[in-house]
Amino acid sequence: MISTKAYSTIQAIDRSAWNDCFPLALEDWDYYVAVENAAIDDFQWRYLALYENGQLLAVAPAFITHYRLDTTVSGIGKRFTQRLERWWPGALRLGLYAIGSPVAEQCHAGVASHVPAARRAALLAQLLAAARRDADAFGIGLLAVKDAPTRDQDWADSCKAAGLHSMPSLPTGLLPLPYGSVDAYLGSLGKSTRKDLRRKLRAPGPQVEWRRNVDDVLPQIMRLYEATLARADLQFERLPAGYFSQVLAQLDQRALCVLYWVDEQLVAFNLVLLDQHRLIDKFFAHDLAHSREHNLYFRSWLTNVDYCIEHKIALYECGQAGYASKLRLGCEFAGNTLFFQHRNRLLDTLLKVVKVFIRPDRSDPAMAAAISETR
User: Fold this and answer.
1) What is the pLDDT of residues 140-190, one digit of tens each?
2) What is the mean pLDDT of the chain?
3) At what angle do helices 153-161 and 120-137 cross, to 10 degrees?
4) Residue 72 has pLDDT above 80, yes or no
5) Is the separation of the CB atoms in 121 and 157 below 8 Å?
6) How many Cα atoms sit within 13 Å of 23 on the Cβ side?
7) How far is CA 181 from CA 178, 185, 211, 280, in A?
8) Rounded mean pLDDT, 26-50
């Protein structure tokens, strides 16, 4: 007999039992503890768990928030929806209950190692049903699965059977690094990109510092973060200072912050998660006034590539933004899918129409190209 639980804190679930559902995950139990402790505004955390005879079978993080339907829209489409929001405040915001996390790379829903793979689809279906019941208890009509891997057929089948609709979400950039040096990596790129990066490398660069604690520079980090966020077309959550300090403290050897200094001024930072298999670029922020002179984005990129090659880390996971640059830099892309359904049939039908216009690949040609590579 399978029983279902929904918790408000991940600490209600045993650490080793949770991590057993996600072998080798960097965004593991400790990461979600850090996220909880950071107290990110406008999000309420939920954790779904399935048990059989007292033994954990499957788990998934979830969250409750108010969601802007144009979150993944950029360019002309974004300007239109911003104007609509000014004319009709709240028209694009709905209460949302989503399986996944606003601060994770993909939807984390896992089954315990002792569970046969053949049971996974059925367990995902039960997690979906548990999410629907939990959402109903909070009076929330819109249910979603955020950033399920496109190639995960179990998710696709379970969501389709539950009546959820689908649309492409932001793809994740991946850079395999089977190279012996940065120069060998540069040699794999197109001629113009290779020449441009080598020219940038010859110019004077900032001082680079790798840190496991940034408490003394958090005000400067937050200044850079807020400025970068204000320039972004795509944004979902707003991270407090506690997120950066908590992730570094909770993950210990599996998190680093790379600081970039010019004349004792912090001009950029990059929070990364890492182990012996991959490096995940969680957030990069920079001072626009220094970016062009010091090529901060590309400096950070090549710093991460160099670190991976030096430490024999085979994969650089570089997030869900900047697709035009990532296409030039040799990235591959892992597709993600957003599944959704509103319990109100009229609103559900309306959302099916709206999704045609708010698909992320409608407004960004580079993103459309990245999405097309995942099929």
Assistant:
1) 999 999 999 999 999 999 999 999 999 888 899 999 999 999 999 999 999
2) 89
3) 50
4) no
5) yes
6) 4
7) 9, 7, 23, 19
8) 96
Cβ contact 302:201 at 8 Å = yes
Question: 10 Å Cβ neighbour count for 356?
Answer: 9
Residue 258, CA distances (Å) to 10, 296, 307 in order: 28, 12, 11
Whether the per-residue pLDDT at 91 is higher than 50: the answer is: no
Which ranges of 162-317 does DSSP label H, i.e. alpha helix?
Answer: 182-187, 191-202, 218-231, 241-251, 288-294, 296-310
**For residues 245, 98, 335 and 114, what is the CA-based torsion angle, rounded to 10 degrees?**
80
Confidence class of residue 90 from pLDDT cuts 50, 70 and 90? very low
Round to whole Å and give the CA distance between 291 and 125: 47
The beta strand positions in the chain, using DSSP E, are 2-7, 44-52, 55-68, 93-99, 110-111, 142-149, 165-168, 172-176, 207-211, 255-262, 265-274, 278-286, 315-317, 332-334, 336-342
Euclidean distance between the first and the last CA atom of the chain, given in angstroms as a whole number? 38
Q: State what percent of residues in the chain have pLDDT above 90.
A: 71
Evaluate if residue 88 carries a pLDDT over 50: no
Q: What is the pLDDT of residue 108?
A: 82
For the chain, percent of residues with pLDDT exceeding 70: 87
Domains of the chain: 2-171+336-372 (3.40.630.30), 173-333 (3.40.630.30)
Across residues 55-77, what is the average pLDDT?
77
Partners of 63 in the beta sheet? 45, 98
Q: Is 339 helix (H, G, I), strand (E, B) or coil?
A: strand
How far is 159 from 143, CA to CA, in rounded Å? 11
**What are residue 173's DSSP bridge partners?**
333
User: Rounded to two decimals, what is the model's pTM?
Assistant: 0.90
- Alpha-carbon distance of 83 to 109, in angstroms, equals 37
CA distances from 184 to 36, 277, 309, 371 (A): 41, 20, 10, 27
**CB of 207 closer than 8 Å to CB of 261:** yes
Closest CA to 158 of 283, 307, 353, 341: 341
356 or 241, which is more confident?
241
Amino acid sitting at position 154: D
